[in-house]
């Protein structure tokens, strides 16, 4: 492009040929589109590409407690990929991701469906949608921590159940367990599923549903053959949100499992708190690749651009 | 008494102001002081202190400013960051407030200059624990990075530590304590006497240890040895085999469901205990006080195997010289002169210069915190909150009883990296 551009200019300088104004106009248009792209390119370059590039570079460095030493070692990768801890941690994180994805999809779709098809007035729809977002007015740390007094050994659930005589002893697995982690994650992330699905459901042409009904489809058939296929882009976008958020989570796992479970990001956080930045960087690169593959897989199943 | 100690300080402060004023020009030139050099103001000297321990206490900086006219800029970090900063940014601080095991890591880098004990006014008052490793002549020297083993060098410029007391002190000890297990006396239902009790099947799912590898491994070592599983040559410097044995044991206990949670921060440990999620766990002394302040019974239980102890001190940055070095000595002499000691003692820590601290405590406070006597009146925290009601006795008793029974000091192992790697396996298991 640059070559063509300079060629244009030399021609302009060389002669006062006819069609000069059109040439200048074309050049200006070229220039304008580049200029328009500059701010975004700069922002993405400085705040996104450069940091990722640095992480990738640092992941090959050597380190000790006192500092980082520029080098080209694959040690950080062989250490990370060669340890059963990494594999087990990835498996654990993927397990959380799968469970949370399944649950948020189920709940999110159900809520969005209810809002889109069972609430008649637009005002009421918006009111109820805003109600869904109310918990998000507090920080997610607070939303997460507030589960602790509910689920604890002497927490709300256990004391209520004991006083009602339903259980003789407190249920131990309510808190500091996988159950607690998944519960908190579902609570934190369901709205990210609700919003895009609600959005796509609202765009569905109601006459399609009527047509399906006229053609003799029952409720399930309409849901399965009409609504869900049309909601796919929303489901895909919600899934990308949920999957990336859960894969990168460390605070929920740390707090809700009482430090008993590991996640990939938690492993990185531990390494960083011990100042093992290159090891954490190698881990980050691996995680980035895994998450990108997952997102690519989602996009392969659903073409968001085409179906939006 | 108070007058006696204050008079010489006043004189040397005037001396300091003179040298300070003379040196100000040089400082401006070297860019050490920014803004206008207010030579005639009371405050020509700023000391930048960073670290883990007393750097967290603002009251000390305020009092220092009032007494000495020295502005203390304090930065608190966690211990790993402190070790890194001490080595990599030696010009970013004047005073390093670090623990002894961190000193062992960073001193060989030449970033801390030893102090001449002749310039330390209260050197004689510092308890022998930091000079010989023995609180009393008949005490047994504890394992781990005992402060006296990294307390001295033979000459200025040495990178290795001296075996015995010399003229050159690497750090002035400031704050230290003896750690043990905290229990909920109302919930454990029996006497707790040993570190091994945390592994009692009766407490299955109701125990916790801390998830800070370098300290957690020591608590685990105390437990292992108390159970008779292993006898360490030095708990503070385990071999790979000893680390493996300890971690394998922890993994098994975790998989059997012995632990309810692992805590990383002070408030987590408080919440675990206060909510009754755990009844026995590793704990720090102020956390026990925090649980008690909620009106919940919590005891810092002395155990027959002894305490795991930690200690920190103030070291001088290698780049200090001239008036700033004098100011640093002045600060350290002020530090050991009693007011700070009394403050720390009243927080439940210990001061290194006990005799001077005594002057700044009431007889009742001294009796409760240091002598292990029953309090005759309410015991207040330095911030003015009631910590204990009249009649209370400190857990573990007197200073000598507690610090005399140290089994092991916090330490850094030669196999540190391997230990951290295995510890991460334990958490992931």
Describe this structure in words.
The complex is a heterodimer of chains A (308) and B (429). Helix content of chain A is 76%, strand content 1%. Chain A is mainly alpha-helical and 308 residues long. Chain A folds into 2 domains: 2-50; 81-307, MetI-like (MetI-like fold, Orthogonal Bundle), CATH 1.10.3720. In chain A, strands 1-2 form a two-stranded antiparallel sheet. In chain A, helix 4 crosses helix 9 (178-203). By secondary structure, chain B is an alpha/beta fold. In chain B, helix 6 packs across helix 7 (240-255), helix 7 runs parallel beside helix 15 (416-428) and helix 8 packs across helix 9. Mean pLDDT of chain B is 86; it is low at 1-42. Chains A and B meet through helix 4 and helix 13 of A and helix 3, strand 11 and helix 15 of B.
What distinguishing features does this structure have?
heterodimer, A: 308 residues, mainly alpha, MetI-like fold, 2 domains, two-stranded antiparallel ribbon, 15 helices, 2 strands, flat, disordered N terminus, B: 429 residues, alpha/beta, D-Maltodextrin-Binding Protein, domain 2, 18 strands, 18% strand, globular
Helices and strands in order:
The complex is a heterodimer of chains A (308) and B (429).
Chain A: H1 2-14, H2 20-58, E1 62-63, E2 68-69, H3 75-81, H4 84-118, H5 122-133, H6 140-145, H7 147-151, H8 156-163, H9 178-203, H10 206-214, H11 219-247, H12 251-256, H13 264-273, H14 277-301, H15 304-307
Antiparallel strand pairs in A: 1-2
Helix pairs in contact in A: 1-2, 2-14, 3-14, 4-9, 4-11, 9-11, 10-11, 11-14, 13-14
Chain B: H1 2-30, E1 46-51, H2 58-68, E2 71-76, H3 79-88, E3 95-99, H4 100-106, E4 112-113, E5 115-116, E6 143-144, E7 152-153, E8 168-169, E9 172-183, H5 185-188, E10 207-210, H6 213-226, H7 240-255, E11 259-263, H8 266-274, E12 280-283, H9 285-293, E13 299-301, E14 307-317, H10 322-335, H11 339-347, E15 350-351, H12 354-358, H13 363-369, E16 379-380, E17 386-388, H14 399-403, E18 406-409, H15 416-428
Parallel strand pairs in B: 1-2, 1-3, 6-18, 10-11, 10-12, 14-18
Antiparallel strand pairs in B: 3-14, 4-14, 5-8, 7-8, 9-12, 9-13, 9-14, 9-15, 16-17
């Amino acid at each position: 492009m640059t070559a063509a551009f300079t060629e244009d200019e030399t021609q302009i300088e060389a002669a006062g040929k006819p069609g000069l104004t059109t040439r200048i106009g074309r050049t200006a248009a070229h220039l304008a589109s580049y200029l328009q792209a500059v701010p975004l390119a700069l922002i993405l370059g400085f705040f996104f590409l450069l940091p990722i590039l640095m992480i990738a570079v640092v992941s090959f460095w050597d380190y000790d407690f006192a500092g980082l030493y520029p080098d080209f070692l694959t040690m950080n990768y062989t250490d990370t990929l060669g340890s059963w801890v990494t594999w087990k941690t990835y498996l654990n994180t993927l397990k959380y991701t799968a469970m949370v994805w399944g649950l948020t999809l189920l709940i999110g779709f159900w809520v969005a469906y209810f809002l889109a098809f069972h609430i008649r007035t637009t005002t009421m729809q918006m009111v109820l949608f805003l109600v869904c977002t109310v918990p998000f007015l507090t920080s997610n740390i607070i939303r997460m921590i507030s589960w602790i007094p509910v689920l604890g050994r002497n927490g709300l659930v256990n004391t209520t159940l004991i006083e009602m005589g339903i259980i003789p002893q407190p249920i131990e697995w309510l808190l500091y367990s996988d159950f607690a982690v998944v519960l908190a994650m579902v609570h934190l992330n369901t709205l990210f599923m609700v919003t895009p699905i609600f959005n796509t459901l609202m765009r569905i042409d109601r006459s399609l549903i009527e047509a399906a009904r006229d053609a003799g489809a029952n409720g399930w058939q309409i849901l399965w053959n009409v609504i869900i296929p049309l909601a796919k882009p929303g489901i895909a976008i919600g899934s990308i949100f949920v999957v990336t958020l859960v894969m990168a989570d460390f605070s929920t796992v740390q707090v809700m499992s009482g430090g008993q479970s590991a996640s990939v990001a938690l492993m990185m956080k531990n390494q960083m708190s011990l100042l093992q930045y290159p090891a954490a960087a190698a881990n980050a690169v691996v995680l980035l690749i895994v998450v990108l593959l997952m997102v690519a897989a989602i996009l392969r199943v659903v073409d968001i651009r085409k179906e939006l | 008494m108070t007058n006696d100690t204050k008079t010489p300080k006043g004189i040397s402060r005037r001396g300091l102001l003179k040298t300070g004023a003379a040196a100000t020009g040089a400082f401006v030139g070297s860019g050490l002081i920014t803004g206008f050099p207010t030579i005639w103001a009371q405050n020509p000297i700023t000391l930048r202190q960073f670290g883990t321990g007393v750097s967290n206490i603002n009251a000390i900086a305020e009092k220092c400013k009032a007494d000495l006219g020295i502005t203390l800029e304090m930065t608190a970090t966690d211990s790993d960051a402190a070790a890194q900063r001490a080595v990599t940014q030696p010009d970013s601080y004047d005073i390093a407030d670090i623990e002894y095991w961190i000193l062992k890591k960073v001193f060989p880098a030449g970033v801390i200059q030893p102090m001449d004990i002749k310039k330390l006014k209260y050197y004689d008052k510092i308890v022998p624990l930091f000079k010989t490793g023995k609180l009393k002549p008949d005490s047994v020297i504890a394992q781990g990075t005992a402060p006296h083993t990294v307390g001295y060098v033979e000459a200025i410029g040495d990178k290795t530590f001296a075996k015995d007391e010399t003229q050159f002190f690497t750090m002035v000890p400031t704050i230290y304590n003896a750690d043990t297990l905290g229990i909920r006396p109302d919930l454990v239902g029996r006497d707790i006497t040993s570190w091994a009790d945390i592994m009692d099947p009766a407490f299955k799912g109701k125990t916790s240890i801390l998830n800070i590898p370098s300290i957690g491994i020591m608590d685990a070592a105390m437990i292992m040895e108390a159970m008779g599983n292993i006898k360490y040559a030095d708990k503070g410097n385990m071999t790979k085999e000893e680390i493996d044995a300890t971690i394998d044991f922890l993994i098994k206990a975790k998989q059997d469901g012995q632990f309810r949670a692992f805590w990383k921060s002070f408030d987590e440990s408080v919440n675990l205990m206060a909510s009754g999620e755990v009844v026995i766990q590793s704990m720090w002394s102020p956390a026990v006080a925090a649980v008690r302040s909620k009106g919940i019974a919590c005891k810092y239980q002395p155990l027959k195997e002894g305490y795991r102890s930690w200690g920190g001190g103030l070291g001088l940055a290698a780049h200090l010289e001239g008036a700033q070095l004098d100011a640093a000595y002045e600060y350290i002499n002020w530090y050991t002169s009693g007011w700070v000691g009394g403050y720390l003692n009243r927080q439940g820590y210990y001061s290194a210069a006990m005799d001077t601290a005594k002057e700044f405590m009431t007889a009742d406070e001294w009796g409760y915190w240091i002598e292990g006597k029953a309090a005759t009146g309410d015991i207040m925290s330095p911030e003015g909150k009631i910590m204990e009601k009249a009649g209370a006795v400190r857990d573990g008793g007197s200073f000598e009883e507690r610090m005399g029974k140290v089994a092991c000091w916090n330490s850094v192992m030669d196999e540190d990296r391997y230990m951290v790697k295995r510890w991460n396996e334990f958490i992931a298991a």
